[in-house]
Amino acid sequence: MTIAEHPATPGSVDLALQQVARFPRLRYMGSKFRLAKPLAEVFAAAGGGTAVDAFSGSGVVSYLLKAQGFRVVSNDFLAFPTAIAEAVVVNQGVRLGDELVARIAGEPLDDRDFIASTFDGLYFDADDRRFLDSAWSHIDLLDGAERALAISALVLSAARKQPRGVFTFTDSSRYDDGRRDLRLSLREHFALRAAEYDAAVFDRGAGHAAHCGDVAELAVESPSLVYLDPPYAPPSDDADYMKRYHFLQGLATYWRGQEIMPETKTKKIAKRFTPFAYRRTVEAALERTFEQFAEAGTIVLSYSSNSVPDAQTIEALLRRVKPSVEVLPVAHSYSFGTHAAATRRAVSEYIFVAR
């Protein structure tokens, strides 16, 4: 039985995980790709019709929920996770195809040079930067699922080409470990990543939605399941996603509506405050979010043991809105970077299940 033939009811963990294996992996801080199996088991036990993925990030959990038969509402405050959700969660059957991919990767339709000039000397060579401008000359003529797929493939291309997948440094040669991804041009990457996204498209029925905005503004009436994977506030520093992925955010929007900070070496986009990223504000933010989704059938929260607040505090906050709270620790290793010398830290990834 294929995933498309499977009844549209939550469950069938093995079939869902087979589908998730096709998901194009984006290097993303806190991605839950490696935790798909325990999450799928929790979701299957919870059951229900509508699932909210309130901090969709890499998109893999929204994709998993769709594969399990939930009607998914995906949300993130960044634009490129929203494009990914539109491409492979909301979209049921549209694909780019070889002909359209070749057009996007072909000659430019105009003489735009925003990326080539703004990021001169940064991240990619001149040919790659010109390609990004050229690709957008075609993407601007697309809409709907085709546009979302093209943006997602372009974002994934840039993330794969950039060492470590983050844009917090200007000397990429420091992290050049010889991987093939670093040798391919962005034009070559785009053809490969577009094919990956086309292969990831599957039909699970209509009714899915993707939103780009603050979780506090997300209104879904009595969902069966709410999955929360907010930024994990570290004991020191912050969990600033815009700082790490500003280029991907800009690329997904062609920097429209984004405020570039010209004085920064990396040409960062101005930070958008989120209370989840800081130890002094995260506890109150979690409490408000739990109250916001108190009417959901089940609240599932991912959180890390090396973050604040601690598991006991989170459990106590959840018990204010749900009578039953189960805490499932899952051994997990986070990699700080993707290069060969990257350090890894073993932690417990807590899965809180509140009913």
Instruction: Bin the strand percentage.
Output: 5-15%
Q: Give the strand order, joined by hyphens, for the main sheet.
A: 3-2-1-4-5-7-6
Instruction: Please write the string of helix (H) and strand (E) elements.
Output: HHEHEHHHHHHHEEHHEHEE
Integer tally of domains = 1
Q: Roughly what is the average pLDDT, rounded to an integer?
A: 92
Rg calc: 20 Å
Gap from first CA to last CA? 32 Å
Main sheet: strands, sense, barrel: 7 strands, mixed
Number of strands: 7
Helix content: 25-40%
Number of helical segments? 13
**Derived structural class:** alpha/beta
- Sequence stretches where pLDDT stays below 50 over 5 or more residues: 1-8, 335-344
Q: What key attributes describe this structure?
A:
355 residues, alpha/beta, seven-stranded mixed beta sheet, 13 helices, 14% strand, disordered N terminus, nucleic acid binding
Word description of this protein:
It is a single chain. Helix 12 (282-292) packs parallel to helix 13. This protein has a seven-stranded mixed sheet. The chain has one domain. With 355 residues, it is of the alpha/beta class. It is globular and about 60 Å long. Residues 1-8 and 335-344 have low confidence and may be disordered. It starts with 12 loop residues before the first helix and ends with a strand. Helix content is 38%, strand content 14%. GO terms for molecular function: nucleic acid binding; site-specific DNA-methyltransferase (adenine-specific) activity. InterPro entries: DNA_methylase_N6_adenine_CS, MeTrfase_D12, SAM-dependent_MTases_sf. It catalyses: a 2'-deoxyadenosine in DNA + S-adenosyl-L-methionine = an N(6)-methyl-2'-deoxyadenosine in DNA + S-adenosyl-L-homocysteine + H(+). It is an enzyme of class 2 (transferase). It holds the Pfam family MethyltransfD12.
